[in-house]
Amino acid sequence: MANLGPANTAGTAVTPTPLLKDELDIVIPTIRNLDFLEMWRPFFQPYHLIIVQDGDPTKTIKVPPGFDYELYNRNDINKILGPRASCISFKDSACRCFGYMVSKKKYIYTIDDDCFVANDPSGKAINALEQHIKNLLCPSTPFFFNTLYEPYREGADFVRGYPFSLREGVPTAVSHGLWLNIPDYDAPTQLVKPLERNTRYVDAILTIPKGTLFPMCGMNLAFDRDLIGPAMYFGLMGDGQPIGRYDDMWAGWCCKVITDHLGLGIKTGLPYIYHSKASNPFVNLRKEYKGIFWQEDIIPFFQNVVLPKECTTVQKCYIELSKQVKEKLSKVDPYFDKLADAMVTWIEAWDELNPQKPTTAKA
Ligand SMILES: O=c1ccn([C@@H]2O[C@H](COP(=O)(O)OP(=O)(O)O[C@H]3O[C@@H](CO)[C@H](O)[C@H]3O)[C@@H](O)[C@H]2O)c(=O)[nH]1
Ligand SMILES: [Mn+2]
Predict the structure, then answer these.
(1) CB distance 26 to 43 below 8 Å
(2) 322 Cβ closer than 6 Å to some ligand 1 atom
(3) 22-351: CATH, from 3.20.20, 3.40.1840, 3.90.550, 2.60.120
(4) Which sequence ranges are marked TM in the entry (predicted)?
(5) CA 321 from chain center: how many Å?
(6) Which of 33, 89, 112, 221 to mutate to test the pocket of ligand 1 (most atoms within 8 A of CB)?
(7) Ligand 1 atom with minimal separation from the 246 CA
C-alpha cells in the first residue's frame, strides 16, 4: 500500500523558477502557530503569504523563519475596513476572505494550517501549489464533457466526437483541490464514520459542467482574483451567527452561478493535500445543523438563479445575486437578509481596497 503522506519534504530543493512567484499570494486563516509551513517550505518559500489571524488578536502567532508574509489580526481588519469590517467573520475560517481582499496579486492559493504535503501513489511529494497553478493556467471545458477528463494534460486529449469549435475552452477561474486522510465530511457523516480515511488517490482533473453546482471546500483552493475574486466572499459565519462551516460552500455556489454566467470554468480534482486533523464532529454539528436543512432551499435557489445580460462584471453579478438572496431567501430565515446586506458591504470594501476597473469576464 503506497504511503500517501504526509510526505517527507526535508531536503527537497526549491524549484529554481517557481511559477507565478510574483503573481500569487498564499492566504492562511489561523488560530495556531504555523509550524505546518516547515513541510511546505520547498514549495511555499518563494511566495508571499497573507496570514489572517482569527480569534484573540493579542495572541502571538509564530511563523517559521524565512517566509515573506503579512499578518492581519482582528484589530487590523477593523482598522482597515472600519464599519465594513462587520462583513468579515470572526472565530471561523471564513475570515480568510479578508486575505483575498487585501492581496494585490492576480492569483490566490488558500490552505488550512492542518493540511500537509501528500504523496502521490509513487511516493513522490505533491507540490499542490504547482498543480493548482497549472490548472488555472490552462482552459476549462464547461460546455461539453470530455470523457477522458482534463484534455490539456500530458498524455490526454479531446476524445472523438468532441466538437472542435469548443476545444479552445474558456478561462479557468477556480481550481478546487482534494484531501487524503481526513475527508471534508459534514458532521453527521463524520459521526457515523469516525474512522473513515480517504486513501483513494484519483489521478483526474475535471471541469465542473455548466449548470452544475458543487460543494466547494476552502482547505485546498486556488483562484484567479481578476476573474472571480469579488465573488469569493465567505459569508457571515462563526461568532454571533446562526451557522458555521458553510463559508466555502456559500462562496462556491455564488462563484459557480457567476462563472457559468460569465463563461468561465471551475475545475476539481488534483492536487491532493494530506488533511491531518478532524475537527470535533459535535462542535461541527452545532455549527452546521441549520445549514443542513436550509440548504434544501438554498440549492434550488442557486439552481434557478438567472443573471441579466447587463451583469457583465463579477461585481454587478454579485450585487444582483445579493438582491435575489434578499428577495427569495429571507423567507427561509432573517439571517439571509443580513447576509444579503453583508454581500453588498463586501463588494463596497473590495472596490475600495481594489480601485481598478471592475472585473470583466472576457479577460
Ligand atoms: O475559529 C476558527 C477555527 C479555525 N480557523 C482556521 O481555519 C482552518 C480550518 O480549521 P480546522 O482545520 O480546525 O477545521 P476544519 O473543519 O478541518 O476546516 C475545514 O472545514 C471547513 C470549515 O468551514 C472548511 O472547508 C475547512 O476550513 C485552520 O487553518 C484553522 O486554523 C480559524 O481561522 N478560525
Ligand atoms: Mn482541518
Answers:
(1) no
(2) no
(3) 3.90.550
(4) none
(5) 19
(6) 112
(7) 23
Q: 287 CA to middle of ligand 2, Å?
A: 15
User: Quick check: ipTM above 0.90?
Assistant: yes
pLDDT tens string, the chain, 363 residues long: the values are 668 789 888 877 766 678 999 999 999 999 999 999 999 999 999 999 999 999 999 999 999 999 999 999 999 999 999 999 999 999 999 999 999 999 999 999 999 999 999 999 999 999 999 999 999 999 999 999 999 999 999 999 999 999 999 999 999 999 999 999 999 999 999 999 999 999 999 999 999 999 999 999 999 999 999 999 999 999 999 999 999 999 999 999 999 999 999 999 999 999 999 999 888 999 999 999 999 999 999 999 999 999 999 999 999 999 999 999 999 999 999 999 999 999 999 999 999 999 976 555 554
Q: Determine the 3-state secondary structure of 140 from DSSP.
A: strand
- What's the rounded Cα separation, in Å, for the pair 129 and 123? 18
d(C-alpha 265, C-alpha 208), whole Å: 7
Domains in the chain: boundaries: 22-351
- What is the number of alpha carbons within 13 Å of residue 356 lying toward its C-beta? 13
Q: If residue 25 lies in a helix (H) or strand (E), which one and from where to where?
A: strand 24-30
